[in-house]
From TrEMBL:
PANTHER family assigned to the protein according to its UniProt record, in alphabetical order: MITOCHONDRIAL GROUP I INTRON SPLICING FACTOR CCM1-RELATED, PENTATRICOPEPTIDE REPEAT-CONTAINING PROTEIN PET309, MITOCHONDRIAL
Pfam families, A to Z: PPR
GO cellular component annotations of the record: mitochondrion
UniProt repeat feature PPR, residue ranges: 87-121, 193-227
Organism: Panicum miliaceum
Region spans: Disordered: 316-338
GO process annotations (BP): mitochondrion organization; RNA processing
Keyword DNA damage: no
Domain of life: Eukaryota
Alphabetical UniProt keywords: Repeat, Transit peptide
Protein name: Pentatricopeptide repeat-containing protein
UniProt GO MF annotations: mRNA binding
């Protein structure tokens, strides 16, 4: 039987396309001029240069250090097209940089990118975005993060997150939103503490619902969170601002009847609120009564009469500031009898 002809030598497998030299890339990234063009050059060369996860990590880290997080986001959005999964660590670093250096809504949009890539935002990621939104005064978007997005990502919001949303809504005078956020908190079974109640009661006063604010003092008692002297001070300042000095005195005296005493920080908050609203002169007699009968330690009432002290107090707070936060409506789901 004739021998079969020898088979031709098999050709060697094609060489794998080498990834760009990541060590060289890291060195070049120290040049601002190179960093400006590197992302576009990399993306144009991507099908042939074969960038790997390390390549993207080097560039995104360099862009974040250069305070160019939006360029880093553009790079990360190209990874799935190159069959590279965005890395959790890099995503979180880019998100943190967006929260520091970019418009807050860019950071909010990047949360959607992370979810699409299978990277679930953590509680700390949500807090960073919440901080950025509140710094820019976008209370509605911040509340959306608290009330909806955190739950969807398995990071259930608690009292601290709701308190921040309440304060933001009070600051911009969104009384209906304060009411909605407070009710949502109660529906979730979260029991407000004194700080949250102070914000809510202050919002009622800002809104002009002084009867509701006064009722809330009783609601707090029945909810197991008896109002402290600071909460009473918020209501006192609200009545003074409304010109109802009789009601303000009555609330101040109720504070003393409950065995509460105005310590220096609480008295400072009350005076600051009155001064910030331009009502200090109107409340002079009330404050002297508090100094005489309701202070934790015996203070010299004559010190308050000194005009230089009064002026000093008036420049310590911006006009319009009030203790405990700012603005809202009345509770419907706390154990209030009326």
């Amino acid at each position: 039987m004739a021998a079969s002809p020898p088979s031709p030598p098999s050709s060697p497998p094609p060489a794998a396309r080498p990834a760009p030299s990541n060590s060289l890339l890291a060195a070049l990234c120290s040049s601002p001029a190179f960093l400006r063009v590197a992302p576009s050059v990399l993306l144009r060369a991507a099908p042939h240069a074969g960038p790997d996860a390390t390549t993207f990590g080097i560039l995104t880290s360099a862009l974040c250090r250069a305070q160019r997080p939006t360029a880093a986001v553009d790079l990360l959005r190209c990874k799935p097209g190159l069959l590279l999964d965005p890395d959790r660590r890099h995503c979180r670093a880019v998100l943190a940089s967006l929260c520091r250096c970019a418009p807050a809504r860019d950071a909010l949009a990047f949360l959607d990118d992370m979810r699409r890539w299978g990277v679930s935002p953590s509680r700390s990621d949500h807090h960073a975005v919440l901080d950025a939104l509140l710094r820019e005064g976008t209370a509605a978007e911040a509340y959306e993060v608290v009330a909806k997005q955190m739950d969807a990502d398995g990071a259930r919001p608690g009292l601290p997150e709701f308190e921040r949303a309440l304060r933001a809504f009070r600051e911009n005078g969104s009384f209906d939103a304060v009411e909605e956020a407070f009710d949502e908190m109660l529906l979730r079974g979260l029991v407000p503490g004194a700080r949250v109640f102070d914000v809510y009661v202050g919002a009622l006063c800002d809104k002009g619902d002084l009867a509701g604010a006064r009722r809330m003092l009783g609601c707090m008692e029945r909810a197991g969170c008896p109002p402290g002297v600071t909460t009473f001070g918020v209501v006192v300042a609200g009545f003074v601002a409304a010109g109802d000095m009789d009601a303000a005195r009555e609330v101040a005296r109720e504070t003393v009847r409950r065995g509460l005493r105005w310590d220096a920080p609480a008295l400072s908050e009350l005076v600051g609120a009155l001064c910030g609203g331009g009502h200090l002169a109107r409340a002079r007699g009330l404050l002297l009564e508090v100094l005489r009968d309701g202070c934790a330690t015996r203070l010299d009432a004559s010190a308050f009469e000194h005009s230089s002290l009064e002026k000093e107090l008036c420049v310590t707070r911006p006009r319009g500031s009030m203790p405990g936060g700012r603005r809202s409506g009345a509770s419907r789901r706390l154990p209030c009898s009326n």
